Amino acid sequence: MKDFEAHILVVDDDEGIRELVKEYLNENNFIISTADSAEDALEKIKIIKFDLIILDIMMTGKSGLEFIQENKQTLDTPIILLTAKGEANDRIEGLETGADDYLPKPFEPKELILRIRNILNKTNILREKKRDRIRKCKNKLEQNVNTQK
Questions:
Q1: Residue 2: inside a domain, yes or no?
Q2: Is 48 helix (H, G, I), strand (E, B) or coil?
Q3: 81: helix, coil or strand?
Q4: Three-state DSSP class for 108?
Q5: What is the value of pTM for the model shown?
Q6: DSSP 8-state code for residue 74
Q7: Vertex 42 angle, CA 131 and 110, to 5°
Q8: Residue 118 belongs to a domain with what CATH number?
Q9: Which among 97, 83, 85 is positioned nearest to 13, based on CA atoms?
Q10: Cα 115 from chain centre
């Protein structure tokens, strides 16, 4: 059985882009789910814990930026915006809104893989540090309880 690197949600209203990204990422050892809108993505996020989200900005219904604004406070999943809006002010707006990275279309598939792996590595390091802090706090609490006995 293949050991996958991460489970990624690709959100784009363009089926061709969704399938192209899905195929490429599958070939590079990622499990991929797709959503055709921000609303569809939200439904999937309610039942599946994704390691990363690749999100288009310009979609029918809610835009990718609206999705981030409405969900970033409760969603700790990293987001890469993958979008045709590639001007500097668009990239700045996307990052200020809360995206973790921004890649304009057309894009180099290898660059997308590198950006994904960079974010996942940083996310895993932060999660491990958080686990270490929790373990240390737990140990201190146990020591305090034991000394009070």
A1: no
A2: coil
A3: strand
A4: coil
A5: 0.82
A6: T
A7: 70
A8: 3.40.50.2300
A9: 83
A10: 11
Identify whether 104 is preceded by a cis peptide bond (ω within 30 of 0). no
Cα–Cα distance for residue pair 62/128, rounded to 1 Å: 34
| Residue reference for tokens 């802090």 | 133
- Is residue 30 a contact partner of residue 2, using CB atoms and an 8 Å limit? no
Domain total of the chain: 1
Residues of the domain holding 41: 7-148
Q: What is the pLDDT of residues 77-95, one digit of tens each?
A: 999 999 888 788 989 999 9
**Stretch among 25-29, 34-38, 122-126 having the lowest mean pLDDT:** 122-126
Q: Under a CB-based contact definition with an 8 Å cutoff, are residues 24 and 18 in contact?
A: no
Q: What distance in Å separates the CA atoms of residue 91 and residue 88, rounded to the nearest whole number?
A: 5
**Structure token digits, residue 31:** 């499990």
Helix then strand then coil, % of the chain, to nearest 5: 55, 15, 30
Structural contact between residues 9 and 41, judged by C-beta atoms closer than 8 angstroms: yes
* Residue 108 phi, psi dihedral angles, 5° rounding: -90, 120
In a domain, 62, yes or no: yes
Short-list 74, 119, 130, CA closest to 95: 119
Q: Are 82 and 107 in contact (CB under 8 A)?
A: yes
